[in-house]
Amino acid sequence: MKFRYQARNKSGELQVGFVDAANREAAFNILSSYDLYVLALTSAEEKHWYEFLVKPFRRVKNIDLMAFTRQFATLLEAKVPLSDSLKNLFRQTSSPILKEAVYELYSDIDSGLSFSQALERQRSIFSDFYINMVKSAEVTGRVDEVMGFLADYLEKEAHLLSKIKNALIYPVTVIVLFMVVVFLMLTVVLPQVQPIFEESNIELPIFTKVMLATGAFLNNWWFVVIPALFSVIIVLINYSRSVEGKALFDDLSIRIPVLGNLFRKIYVARFSESFGVLIKGGVPVVQAIEISGHTIDNYAYQEVLHGIAEAVKRGELLSHAIEKEEKFFPPLVSQMISIGESTGKLDDLLGRISLFYSRQVDDLVSNLVELIQPALILGIGVLAGLLFASILMPLYNLVNTF
After folding, report:
1. CA 384 to chain centre
2. What are φ and ψ of residue 41, in 5° steps?
3. In b/e form, how buried is each residue of 164-190, taking b as 16+ CB within 10 angstroms?
4. C-alpha to C-alpha distance for 247 and 302, rounded to whole angstroms
5. Is 359 helix (H, G, I), strand (E, B) or coil?
6. Are 4 and 18 spatial neighbours (Cβ–Cβ below 8 Å)?
7. pLDDT of res. 389
């Protein structure tokens, strides 16, 4: 069984982490043998009904993982031993969840596991790409260089995500406020004027009838609609996290007009960058392709890259294998790789591909940000016009009858 503990050592420092033991008493004895004063010891295997609500808040933020990786890379580049680096990072890390993970990494390495094996025990925090990059670096003896690459990679990802999030804050706020206004109009304002329309016997426009019917339905069944809406959202979230659901949504993401083009360029840039680093580090091409597939958080691309790896294993040129997948990789990618294969500078050409598509992603995101606001204003303006027309037109007709 696995137990989560909080304890203090002889110097009074708080330590948190996990321990494997047959039962609670055995776990307590193990911790005591390390001269730890146990403050709390709970089972990490018990499932509670509220865990799925708490789980999203127990994730490590991208910025915390980025800071950890950058500090770790700096310590390793300064030739600080791995275990001492983790000790220093444990004291500096502010995120409680990441602090637990760093302590467990140190404990696992101290017990004889390799760094990549210790990371594999923390898959909820470190991605497959992160783990595989470290695993390949252990083979080539370039862990410090790969940690520097991972730090740069996470910083780029954080910058892109921050740019997208900042671009969406205003539109999402406006949409939410508009939905609140619509809800109040349907449930409060329209029911007040509906008796006037009924008594006057005037012909109501079709959209006014729809608004009145919707408002009446929400007034009578709000206690069913709200829980049902939340239930649908929860079901969709859970389905999107399943293997089948993620595969479906991943496939849809690259088919959506405009956004699909953006996602494809992001995935090509990720693949080119990670693949180039692995090739430069001496990792075999087939293995590098498989590992690079994990940098792309998209099942469709992972399957395609697995097929490309199998083709290369059979003796086919990488450029020819990628050329067949024009839906996922633009012709420029196969052409550049072909040049790299013929000149022996494949890693250099892959870096150029990554830089080219990274710049295109930045330009495309900037253009989308510029287009969001006018498109949003236009859409909300039309909807607001229909909403108020559903009230004003019947009132206008009513005035004309007198």
Report:
1. 33
2. -145, 110
3. eeebeeebeeeeeebeeebeebbbebb
4. 10
5. helix
6. yes
7. 81
Confidence of residue 49 (pLDDT cuts 50, 70, 90): very low
Q: Is 335 left (phi over 0), alpha (psi -120 to 50) or beta?
A: alpha
| Partner residues linked to 15 by β-bridges | 7
CA dist 46 and 388 (Å) reads 53
pLDDT at 37 over 90: no
Average pLDDT over residues 86-109: 85
- Amino acid in position 155: E
Query: What is the dihedral angle through the alpha carbons of 17, 22, 23, 27, rounded to the nearest 10 degrees?
Result: -40
Sheet holding 2-8, edge to edge: 14-20, 2-8, 37-43
The pLDDT confidence band at residue 58, using thresholds 50, 70 and 90, is: low
pLDDT in tens, 252-292: 888 888 788 888 998 898 889 888 877 877 778 888 888 88
Q: How far apart are alpha carbons 134 and 281 in whole angstroms? A: 11
User: What whole-number distance in Å separates Cα of residue 323 and Cα of residue 335?
Assistant: 8
CA-CA distance, 216 to 193, in Å (whole number)? 12
CA 152 to CA 294: how far, in whole Å? 17
At 137, list the tokens.
């670096």
CA distance 114 to 369: 44
Separation of alpha carbons 127 and 104, rounded Å: 17
Continuous segment of H or E residues that includes residue 265 = helix 259-280
Question: Which token pair is 288?
Answer: 């590098």
Q: Specify the pLDDT at position 50.
A: 45
Q: Encoding tokens for residue 163?
A: 């740019």
CA atoms of 224 and 204, how far apart (whole Å): 28
Q: Decide: helix, strand or coil at residue 344.
A: coil
281: CB partners within 8 A, 6+ apart: 136, 137, 140, 142, 145, 146
187 Cβ partners below 8 Å, 6+ apart?
Answer: 215, 218, 219, 222
| pLDDT surpasses 80 at 89 | yes
